[in-house]
């Protein structure tokens, strides 16, 4: 059946073709306490921009591995940074 | 009383005097409304990530202050009125931000102390070296 074949190829692509992903661990939290006290500063563009795509989009949690708390803070930090023109809302990728 | 930070971007083509004037104006407003200015941090001229009002550069100023809850609104009307201000952001410090701020301060203190210790150690080391050299020479 063609349907099955396509599925299989897709699965094999997922396991082989994609970049080897590291463990999905939140990079903001070292331990429980640091997770609770976490504050993501929107002025720290270097740290934030690791969680943005080239176009300036926020990378989803399922890819970056952030925990819910970090992702929520990250989102608001990114939005503040964008408002203050520290990072672009959109940056075009040259084709 | 809660702690706030307000950041605003001024036209980078303004003279230093005009910049200082607007900063003083904001300071007056905060202090005139029972607020307390804690720190004033001039980030200086920076390139904007995107054009705002056809401008490529902006002069960033950040002011930390303590005030009652109605002050951010007062500031907002002021910012909207002043056409020198391109962008502004006023936000209240969360619990975690306050903790992080305190930690930072402690770190600064500690690093200051550590530097002192390191200097002493260096001096000791150099003194010891000199002694060794003296012995060798003799």
Explain what you see:
The complex is a heterodimer of chains A (95) and B (138). With 95 residues, chain A is mainly α. Chain A has one domain (2-83): Irregular (30s Ribosomal Protein S18), CATH 4.10.640.10. Chain A has five helices and no strands. The radius of gyration of chain A is 17 Å and the shape is globular. Chain A starts with a helix and ends in a 12-residue tail after the last helix. Mean pLDDT of chain A is 77; it is low at 1-17. By secondary structure, chain B is an alpha+beta fold. Chain B has two domains: 2-93, Ribosomal protein S6/Translation elongation factor EF1B (Alpha-Beta Plaits); 97-138. Helix content of chain B is 51%, strand content 35%. Chain B contains three helices and four strands, in the order E-H-E-E-H-E-H. Chain B has helices spanning 16-32, 71-81, 95-137; strands at residues 2-11, 36-52, 55-67, 85-92. Chain B has a four-stranded antiparallel beta sheet with strand order 2-3-1-4, covered by helices on one side. In chain B, strand 2 and strand 3 form a beta hairpin. Chain A binds chain B through residues 37-39, 41, 80, 82-89, and chain B through 7, 9, 48-50, 52, 58, 60, 87, 89, 91, 94, 96-97, 99-100.
The structure class of chain A reads: mainly alpha
Mean pLDDT of chain B: 84
How many β-strand runs of chain B? 4
Order of helices and strands of chain A: HHHHH
Terminal CA distance of chain A reads 37 Å
Count of folded domains of chain A: 1
């Amino acid at each position: 059946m063609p349907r099955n074949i396509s599925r299989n190829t897709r699965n094999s692509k997922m396991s082989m073709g994609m970049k080897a992903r590291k463990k999905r661990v939140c990079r903001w939290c070292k331990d429980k306490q640091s997770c609770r006290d976490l504050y993501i500063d929107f002025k720290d563009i270097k740290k934030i921009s690791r969680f943005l795509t080239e176009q300036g989009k926020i990378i989803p949690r399922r890819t970056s591995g952030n925990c819910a708390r970090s992702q929520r803070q990250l989102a608001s930090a990114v939005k503040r940074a964008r408002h203050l023109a520290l990072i672009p809302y959109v940056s075009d990728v040259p084709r | 009383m809660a702690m706030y930070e307000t950041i605003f971007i001024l036209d980078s083509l303004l003279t230093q005097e005009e910049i200082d004037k607007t900063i003083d104006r904001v300071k007056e407003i905060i202090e005139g409304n029972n607020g307390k200015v804690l720190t004033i941090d001039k980030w200086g001229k920076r390139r904007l990530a995107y054009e705002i009002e056809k401008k490529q550069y902006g002069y960033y100023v950040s002011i930390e202050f303590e005030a009652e809850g109605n002050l951010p609104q007062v500031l907002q009307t002021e910012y909207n009125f002043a056409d020198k201000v391109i962008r502004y952001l006023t936000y209240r410090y969360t619990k975690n931000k306050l903790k992080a701020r305190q930690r930072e301060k402690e770190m600064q203190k500690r690093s200051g102390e550590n530097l002192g210790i390191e200097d002493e150690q260096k001096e000791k080391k150099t003194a010891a070296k000199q002694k060794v050299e003296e012995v060798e020479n003799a």
